[in-house]
Amino acid sequence: MTQRPFPSYEEFWRRQVRMPPEDSANKYVGLFFAIPLLVVVAALVIWFGTNVVSGGTEIPDAEGGSMNEDTVL
Predict the structure, then answer these.
(1) CA nearest 59: which of 45, 50, 69, 49?
(2) Are 52 and 46 within 8 A, CB to CB?
(3) Is the pTM of this model over 0.90?
(4) Residue range(s) defining the domain that contains residue 60
């Protein structure tokens, strides 16, 4: 049987649907960017969470007290 120079319509689409082999380097590019981003987001969430729970950052006034909302001047 001789090979035809052009594949049939079905053979053409069968080859198109087949995925190319995945490049091994491309597997880790997403992780290279995603993991540091998740670490930064987690650190910000923890920092904001603890800051809100602890009542926020206290600003000392001239006498060494604090200028929180409940301080009566």
Answers:
(1) 69
(2) no
(3) no
(4) 28-73
